[in-house]
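BUG: 3D viewer hangs when loading the predicted structure for this chain

Environment: internal workstation, default settings.
Expected: structure renders.
Actual: progress bar stalls at 90%.

Input used:
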Amino acid sequence: MKSVITVVCAFYKRFPIARGMTTYAVLWPSASICQQFIADNNKLDFIQAARYGFFGCFVMAPMIHAWLGLTNTMFPSVTLGTAIVKALVEQTTFGPAMMSSFFFGMSLLEGNSVGAAAAELRVKFFPTFKVGVFIWTTVNIVNYSLIPAQHRIIFIGACSFVWTVFLAYIKQLQVSKQQPTI
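Structure tokens produced before the viewer hung:
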């Protein structure tokens, strides 16, 4: 058993993106199922959970891995001031890109048309973005100032679980002419 753990740890150390992808492949469908329990669904939608797993693993984890690598290169020091700058840069650039990718991509994975995906994005983006700015600015300041670089994607993954439960809730809201109240 020890040799298996050693091999897995060595693999994740050699390929850190795989660690993030594995984390998101578990966290995102788990968050979807958690949201379904909270919504008191009578029947769990495992296809929906699989979509979340696919999207988390193959879209979000690589995006986050690339972003964290870029920000570590752009802002190598680990100070509170740098953490605040990184968080603000992220909330004005990467955050909107991730949120747009989520609503648009998940809608396409559900089989919706490009027009329907764009309509959902228009309705749900800004209310969700407002909540995200508050939450993720705080999380990112902690992440960039206190968490060692090699553990940041896992820390963000854990915070992402709660955020993804929220996203899954917003995602399941029906698109109407009015924006959802958040």
